[in-house]
Write a structure and sequence with these properties.
The structure is a single chain. The protein is mainly α. The protein contains two helices and two strands, in the order E-E-H-H. The longest helix has 35 residues. The radius of gyration is 28 Å and the shape is rod-shaped. The N and C termini lie far apart (86 Å).
Length: 67
């Protein structure tokens, strides 16, 4: 049992607050992981200018050796 200021906290109440805090922290960390993952995936799927140029050349026949 911990004493916070002048009020004594009941063990079950203290435990419930600690669990609630842990769940909130876990939720926030999970949300951060999702945001970071989505950012990495979106950057990986973003076509580069070089790739776009090469795909356009291939589609139009430009840049290919047609003997």
């Amino acid at each position: 049992m911990r004493n916070h200021g002048s009020a004594t906290t009941e063990p079950k109440s203290y435990e419930a607050k600690m669990i609630e805090g842990a769940i909130t922290t876990d939720f926030v960390l999970s949300a951060e992981i999702v945001v970071i993952t989505l950012n990495v995936v979106s950057e990986a799927l973003k076509p580069s200018p070089t790739l776009c140029y090469r795909l356009r050349e291939d589609a139009t026949g430009g840049g290919l050796d047609h003997a």
